[in-house]
Amino acid sequence: MSKFFSSPLLVFFSAIALRITFLLYGLWQDANSPLKYTDIDYYVFTDASRFITHGHSPYDRETYRYTPLLAWLLLPTTWSSTWFSFGKVLFAIGDIVAGWLIVLVLRRQGMVMSRSLGFASIWLLNPMVATISTRGSSEGLLGVLVVALLWAVLRKRIVLAGVLLGVGVHLKIYPFIYAPSIIWWLDDENLSPGRNEKVQKVQEGDLVSKANAFVNVARVKITVVSLATFMGLNTAMYVKYGWPFIQHTFLHHVTRIDHRHNFSPYNTLLYLNSSISGSSPFCIESLAFIPQLLLSAIVLPLLLAKKDLPSTMLAQTFAFVSFNKVCTSQYFLWYMVFLPFYLPTSSLLQRPYLGISAGVLWVATQGLWLQQGFNLEFLGQSTFVPGLWVSSLMFFLTNMWLLGIIVSDVGSKTSLKPTAES
């Protein structure tokens, strides 16, 4: 096994072969089984692309809730039946590129190639990751964007990082939570290692000195570039598609009520709320954002970002997904892409019993929910209360325990300072 991970060629060949296998199997299952391999969302994407090719809006396709950029990217799927799987191939390539960027970041942190490939394989050789992308979920694109963002920040390529952040937030709203961590991390000490004397003087200075020190070139640059990119894309899409773009891409997620395939403890409340005709005085779907954003976008960045930026991004994403009112298996990829950066020094690996217990509980509580969901959706049994609700709470509590471990691990680290660049 050590020989396997000593060869980048073997690891990446295996990762590509895994995805080709799933793609081919998916074609067979779609052709021979009533239960389709292709994700329903992929049909939504490709239908939206088909509307565009006929001169219509992608939002003419009911339930298309994404930026038109995604439908534009998948225009080749409309060329012929042979090209229908183009998007799946594109998403799978995104997985591979994200894996290579993971290796680059780990190597920059001083990890040897074989160990870097081993931890990157948590993403590259993960059947769950490969399955989700080859079924036609676009999460692979988000994976490569956020890891590229991390790589660009650590390499201090600020303009590139700003563009990637702006594109990422436009494509899917959640990457905005990384902006506070990145901005907080971009202090003079991280940008110019060895300037401890200046930093110490600022820490001992008055409030005005601290404010002046906070506003440095890198922080201003990434803020301006990311906002310009985000607003530029939004303006272009609004000019082209008008209010439906704003409504379906952004506002829909504020009032979204989705109680199917949802691991969130809000699941039962959303179901009850969806059955109420007219407006409800208790809009749980809107209030759910308060604890989610407070933790993932404010508290965790301030506490952890300067200690370990990659692991902080994991903690933020884990908190965001766990507290999200809609939590599906696809969203797990949002934080799984950061696991290779956190695990090498984590207590989950240093204390095997803790790691095994965490893995077993995480899988078991999902399995319990899935069993209740199967009884509800396939057998027609009413399992909302107590079965589905209790299993959702158990999964949430497991995630909170895991989040506590992650935050404790990252918080106990001394600040990770980059080496001076030649």
TrEMBL record:
| Residues annotated as transmembrane | 9-28, 83-105, 112-130, 136-154, 161-186, 287-305, 317-341, 353-371, 383-407
Give a Gene Ontology cellular component term annotated to this protein.
glycosylphosphatidylinositol-mannosyltransferase I complex
This chain's protein is named GPI mannosyltransferase 1
Q: What is its main location?
A: endoplasmic reticulum
Q: Which family does it belong to?
A: Belongs to the PIGM family.
- Entry's localization field: Endoplasmic reticulum membrane
Q: What is the protein's species of origin?
A: Calycina marina
Protein's GO biological process: GPI anchor biosynthetic process
A Pfam family annotated for this UniProt entry: Mannosyl_trans
Q: Its pathway? A: Glycolipid biosynthesis; glycosylphosphatidylinositol-anchor biosynthesis
Q: State its role.
A: Mannosyltransferase involved in glycosylphosphatidylinositol-anchor biosynthesis. Transfers the first alpha-1,4-mannose to GlcN-acyl-PI during GPI precursor assembly. Required for cell wall integrity.
Lineage at the top is: Eukaryota, Fungi, Dikarya, Ascomycota, Pezizomycotina
Q: How does it sit in the membrane?
A: Multi-pass membrane protein
Task: Provide the alphabetized UniProt keywords.
Answer: Endoplasmic reticulum, Glycosyltransferase, GPI-anchor biosynthesis, Membrane, Transferase, Transmembrane, Transmembrane helix
The catalytic activity of this protein is classed by the Enzyme Commission as 2.4.1.-
Q: Which domain of life is it from?
A: Eukaryota
Named from the GO MF annotations, one term is: alpha-1,4-mannosyltransferase activity
